[in-house]
Amino acid sequence: MASSNEDIQISNKLDDAYQHMQSAQLYVSKAPNSMSVDLVNKADDFYNAMQAKATTAQNILAAVQPVYESDAMKTIRDGMNTLVEGLPGVLKALDEVANIHPFIKIAVGAFKVVVELDLKRRDNEKKITLLFVEMKDMMEVLIQLRLIKDEEEPGPDGTTIKARMQELVKRTADDIKTCANACDAYSKKKLLVKVLKSSSWDDKFKGFLTLFTDRRKAFTFALEMHVGKGVDDANRKLDSVNTKLNLVLEFFATLVPPDQQQLGELINSRGGPDAVMKENDVLTALAKYKPSSEVGSAKRADAHADLRSNKDPEGSLKELKEELFESADVAMQKNLETFERKFDVQRKKIIEEMQGIVRHEGDRVIDSVLSGPHDKIRDTDIHELWKDMRWRGHAKARHFVLALRDYYSSEFVSTSGVSGPVPRVIAEDQWALKYLDVEYISALIEAFDEDASGFITISEVNQFTTSRPQGWSVVHWLAYWAQGWQMSCTYYIVKITNCFAEIFALEPHVRAENHTFVAEYLMNVWRPVTTLSASMSTFAVEDELWSRFESYVLAEEKRLDDALKDVHYYIDAVETLYLITGPGRIEQFIFPLLYLLVRRHLDVMRLCYRRVVINRGELWYAAGGIYYIMDMVMARVGYLESLFKQRNLDPDKQFKTFAYGLYNYIRDQDQFWSLKSLMNGSFTTADFRPDEVEKDLPEPGDVLSYPTPMEGLFSRPEEILTESDLEVSGPLKVILGRWYGFFGEGDAWPGYPMVTFFFHASEDASVAKARSITAGGVSFAIVGQHALKDDGTVEYSFSQTFSGGYEPRHLKARLSDDGQSLFGLWGNKEDDLKDEFYLTRLPPELLTARPSPREFRENKIQALWRYAIDATREQIRRKSTSLSWIRIKEYLARRNKYLTLIAREEDQGLNPDEYKELAILDHGFTYDEACCCFVLLEMRNRAGDKVPNFGCNVCAQEIEGVRYTCLPCSLAQNTSVDFCDKPGCRDATLDIDGSTHLPSHHMIKVRTFLFYDRDTPKLFGNATRVIADLTEQAKKMGTRPKLPAADARNDQGQDGDTGLVDGASGALQAKDSVDAETPVTSPIDIKKDEPETRGRATAASANKVIGVRPTCVSCSAKMEPPFFVCVDCIESIYICTDCDEQLGGLSIGAHTPSHSLLRYSRSSETNRAAGPSEERLRALESKVASFSGQFTALNERMHRMEGLLESLLSRLVPEVSVG
Ligand SMILES: [Zn+2]
Ligand SMILES: [Zn+2]
Ligand SMILES: [Zn+2]
Ligand SMILES: [Zn+2]
Fold this sequence. Notes:
The protein is an alpha+beta fold. Helix content is 57%, strand content 8%. The protein has an 8-stranded antiparallel β-barrel. Strands 12-11-15-18-16-17 form a 6-stranded antiparallel beta sheet. 34% of the residues are buried. The site of one zinc ion has 5 residues, from α41. The site of one zinc ion (ZN) has 7 residues, from α46.
């Protein structure tokens, strides 16, 4: 006890010392040299006393240590550890009190919702837990209302408790929600952001801790007053609360998780947060930092980042910087909408749950007198079975299901008196008995055995029977799990497959600005989803049986869809998924959930076709949603795997049958996606039907989660003066509101495009603040202060900070006499301001007409004169209602010049003359117009973006444009072996893993964007058949060509010339065995017909001219190998190398340059002997091909730009108002 007393003493002293230090510091900073000395001395004394006391302590920190272990600290720590256990009791008590005092329902409701939401978060962020502990402590005070019988009963002073507390309770509900939003926003931040922005968040959280404590005091005070205690009494009670707050805040500071600590140390070793944030390289490296024990939210937030940085490391750096620039407040603001949606979903859920558990016919009433564990079972039949089998708390899963089957098949004879078989199942459920057969036993076990433990507990039994749809018998429900579930999965797998087929058909046709994102989505999403859907054994939908389950399946789909709608199909975390699905195994809803999401994404893609240019984030986050589902899947697989091992079962074997093999492929994805396995099947495809794509097109606003870049331009939120702005007076008041302006730099006026921002007063009315974005898309904040000069004038000083590591600016400004302009000097260093700026309240159109400050200085009269003329001219120009063609042309010319210059400025910089030209152009564009230009530039860059896809095996670069893929080498390596079109690459001889690639191999020339996983099997299958045809043909001619593929067929063991063909026909056979009526085991894909085979094998044989040398479709020359054959056309299209090279791909009939061509070679010798002339031709070919590629892209772009410009102009011109 003595030591504990000592602890408290230390703690008290420390507290005092701390307080003195704080006030001392405050004074020191305010009045550096006067009365503070006293205070400092006092604090010093305390420290000396402390140090004397803590003789063993090496430093002050060590002395502080005991405080954390003191009783009070222990209470806090315990409170955190037991939070989850304590909550249900508190919630229940609060509910009861809310029934007596309905006015607290609003706060209790909000508290319940945020608690539920937080429980779904699986990470263990201690700071957030501490916030919830404080929230709970605050709410607990309200339980004391229990002692007050009636909310309308007046206290001694005549006020009712309701009147006393109602406002406070309402505010509390809001505060709880705000705090939960902060926690939600924080938990989504990347680890690096959490560390670098920790002070901003800590301030926020400490604010909440203080707020909740204050509120607790206010509640306590109100209660004490109501029961007639004196003010002094009440205040005394509050003192302890105050002491605790100090401890809590101190404790809070110690709650830094190890991963954040590690990263924090790393940052300090690199010079601290400020230094780190300036260095792009360091930031990028730190963003990749993974702590040694990586758990929880950091991992999941980074999964998202990984998805993005896949392609766009620059982009993610830019985003990271944007995030680092954000204060906690801004991050909370951004998260609010998402959070509110989740909040509402959870609130609905709680209300639904309050309406009670579903009661089924035949359910027993559970009374409190139990004669055995079986009495806890709700269902009458299972209750009887359980009792008779004398099971205790659980039964072996297999035994249970077999016994259940016997019971329902009436083979079961009761031992409890009633003898003889009794029919247990009513006539209309007789059909279902068939599904209680041994054949379905694993499915039935899985249905009951929620945790896959091999045992079925009483609560699992109750969970199973009560979860059945209203009106269904348990037997019906069992039949659903035996067969109906598999059938419903098949139903959704087909739907998902068809959605993807449509998206893949649409992909080549979407607007160029969207293509990268659509392609990336498919590359990221299709493969994991297909791994799941292909893995499961499907069962074709039988109409009669289906009709028994359909209502339930569709009701479940609707339930999920409604929940998805509530969150706007935006899945920001795994917790949100739990919110949508509700409790239960993930297998239950994985496919409907995936279907609903992919169907929604298909709607987005349809908009991408022509209607809109989507935001960069749109499909990234769409893909992110699917990734979160895959996170859940992987967690489930991991759980099952360890469980199987615990039960001494072989996971490999178990996964083959568990949930009809659902997780079988995902455990060995590489095997499933190997080329060999892919070649054994094919994927469902669809035709591109533009009219279908555009039919009943949804409104962009209904489907898109992010503003489109165009919307961003035109729907900037209108800012107006707030109430607190209006209360401000003095020099600050006159600068509030909207400003437009230019910044000069060196000789250039302006040095930058026009800027605009809107000054609001800060909360304490001490400064003016604004946040805005430059025309080029960089966020900035600007803070303005004022000071009275000796001459009585007011001087304003502004500081402007940018996201993305740009140097901050300092501005010194004067307000013009009429209050309409602010002007002065700016610079990056506070003591070195030398460039001019000019801000005005006048419309931006007039600003474009205003001569530079220098012109005003040099000849004011002349400048004013010019200003007047130009402004008038500008007014007339912009007011004219009809768009004169000359004006449009002039405008477009200016804009095009501007686009060229800003693009080049970004790329390589400009020369002095170009800078002058740029300044003139900058000056001529309003802020909106300049924004337009930058958006257009972005669109242009996006249209030219390439998605990294295939790399060259020789030069290791990403292949752009023409790609050669070697058929035999790819098959031998079990992965794509590709070459770019550079002569040194596509003609190379190369050793790959022990075998040699020769330029004479059969290569396929691909000019379009193809997806490796999806398109390769078809491409190679077609090419293999073409080779077979040609070989056949050559045989008939008697000039049997030597197939150079021998080295690649080592494991086929077939006759050299037909080995590949057999592989292909094997694939066809595999497809034939997909029969709609019989259960299918592991097809690659579900398909009822095979459009892509297009009768290749038959039509091609019918078309070819047997025994005649192939002739070129273009120049009609008779050809010798090597020549090209189309692998996509049904007809045999032969093209000589010259024609294909010269024209960059032929268009003849159905054949287009986007078709892939097989380069059919006869033997290695011919190619090896390629002469210099051929070499030159090849070089020419690549030039022509690349030129023609550029030309097509350019043409397309021009076309799109035209449309874009027209629509932009038509929107822009009516907008202009001159006031
Ligand atoms: Zn190359
Ligand atoms: Zn090869
Ligand atoms: Zn030709
Ligand atoms: Zn073709």
